[in-house]
Amino acid sequence: MRTIARCGFLFFVLIVGAVSARAEEVSSYALDPLIISKRRVHLLPAQSLSGDDLQERETSSLLQSLSFLSLDMQSRSLGGGIQSDVSLRGSTFQGVLFLLNGKRINDPQTAHHNADIPFTTEDIRKIEVTPGVSSALFGPDSIGGAIHFMIKKPQERIRVAKIGMGDYQTAGALVSIEDKFNNLGIRVSVENKESGGFTTDTDFKKFTSSVSSSLDIPDGEYTLNFGYQEKEFGAYDFYTPHSGYLSKEWTKTYLLDTALSLERNDLLIKPSFLWRRHFDKFALDKTQIRSRYLNHHQSDIYTPSFYLQKEIPVLGRLGAGTEYGEEKINSTNLGKYSRTHTSFFLDDSGELTPEISYGFSLRTDDYDSFGRDFTGSASVKYRFFEPHALYAGLARSTRVPSFTELYYNDPTTLGDMNLGAEKAWNYQMGYEYDQEDVGYVLTAFVRQESDTIDWIKRTSRQSKWQVENITDAEVFGIEQTLRLQMRENLMLDANYTFINKRINDQGFLYKYGPNYIRHLLNSNLVINLPFGEQSIGFTYKKKPVRDGWFLMHAALSYNLNRHSRLFLKAENLMNVEYQEIEGIAQPGRWVEAGIRVAW
Questions:
Q1: Domain that holds residue 309
Q2: How many domains does the chain have?
Q3: Which of 595, 591, 470 is nearest to 162 (CA)?
Q4: Which of 249, 289, 441, 593 has the fewest CB atoms below 10 angstroms from its CB?
């Protein structure tokens, strides 16, 4: 594989040199208004990846594809597909809301498992990243923003098979079969991937299977999606940086999502239900697997909801809904607990004039263990001269502690059952320029946090990391996003984020270090060639009190015919040594190659 890596790198350099630095291709993401469900919208810009983007990139996992956007993916594994935390606009990894088809799927045990999503890239219609204000539309956990995974409706007859191999004894295979029978569409996907790991105790195995179905009925549709995923992986110092523990972890995820959508006379009726069960077995030291620190956890979330929306001439698109949520855990370490909340929410969007649009949401969540809390958002957009627009918004968000933060205890970590909920106010304003061949967005944002939850030590002599509500924090930042169609077959995508976060903490020590991004720069150049697609990209990250790192990635596809293509991709081409999370090493250069057939 080293020979393949060298040849691939040389080929990439030759291609880029031939087309010059002006070369570029179709954007990896679109700067369009975010459409949340059938008619639920907000006004502020969001970044997105379509299912076609995922397939063209041949990404190793759903999360790996997000690394090109304006978020900080803090990976602990090869390709980010086994264990990754996500930060948006300087939030902690707990402060990002994960959604599936508009429904919250955050893991109540710990946000380390939020990305255990049991669907493949062939199942996804779109992934949207909504930082800041607009994410408050969905309720708790959206301190920094939201990541929304939308399942593709089966609607054509297609079979897909993909196989790939790469460095570190990495191999994977995927099969997806989709068909439409009159009003019934169904898709079945199965994927298996494993690796020997790039260093000691970083091996993994991952198996994913899913079934997606849709039934067209008079005035609407009924959808049902079910996914199952199991993982086994070495977890060297995953949660105990610098401690040297040879850890092991096993997880299983079941997810059922079903919804009925009916619409007549501009009235939308949408009842839905989501169930997610997660098993987690964790050995802090796998050399002493029978020790007291072999933990078994089972968590469940149940979320029935009901939503109505009506187009009203004066009020615009007015929506109202209710949601009931129950979270349970049965754990050898955390104990056995359950908690519930009941939510009511309103949202509205419309136009005051042809140039001015508005949107707002208001939500109340009544927790049986944390009391009642109110969240919501308001935004406005002014198109002063097409294609120019100004926008502004504000939102209030909250997050209740996870079961791990409340009850966990091991030789290095101690929870606190008396924790309170985090709270935050988000403010943002910006400028948007949107044309077919050029898109540019500039956003300035401020977030004021109170009762922020994090793992700290008050002194270096303290034996355990203790979770606390660490007073207040203020976040200021700037985001810029550019999409530039340079020629018919060349496009450039780039984004830059600057974040300054001030924590009133009296000099605490942090378990994962100052884990937010100060500078984040991504760029991706795509060239549509007669025989396939060539892309090359760069990422620069800089965290406080740490040196920054610069990574380069590239990919090439070759169309054998209209049904099949070969692909070759390489990550960290310059073999840089770096750590997303301080104390946890990341892989050096690694290359994957394979073939995808669709018919």
A1: 2-598
A2: 1
A3: 595
A4: 289
